[in-house]
Amino acid sequence: MSLMEAKYETIYRELNVTPTKQRVELAQLIFSKKQHFTAADLISMADKKKLNISMATIYNTLSLLEDKGMLKTINIDNELKFYDTNLEQHHHLYNTTMSTLTDIDHDRVVFAELPELPKNLQIESTELLIKAKNR
Question: Whole-model pTM?
């Protein structure tokens, strides 16, 4: 077992999740770097690495990691959902022409004014999604 495999097995165990071979292989693809990807991207990555992992296992693992707080999701629209390995507070720029998502540092965006909230609510965080297309 490689050091990386052991690392991901430990992470799964800490989340009270059984670290199956497929889950560990997916974790290696997902968490190898900070990145944005779709489920289709992950399926393609797994295929390129010749990993024998079903689409159902990929979707279930993404859902599990999302539920456990290991992945952030960015819903572009009803048809497109990106997963983000960067869990720090930040914003995003979505290029509609290229279908790419890029991080924007949280400090790079300043809100001049926020809407008034009902008295029983307080702002927990703010996330901005900017959509832009190529000229």
Answer: 0.89
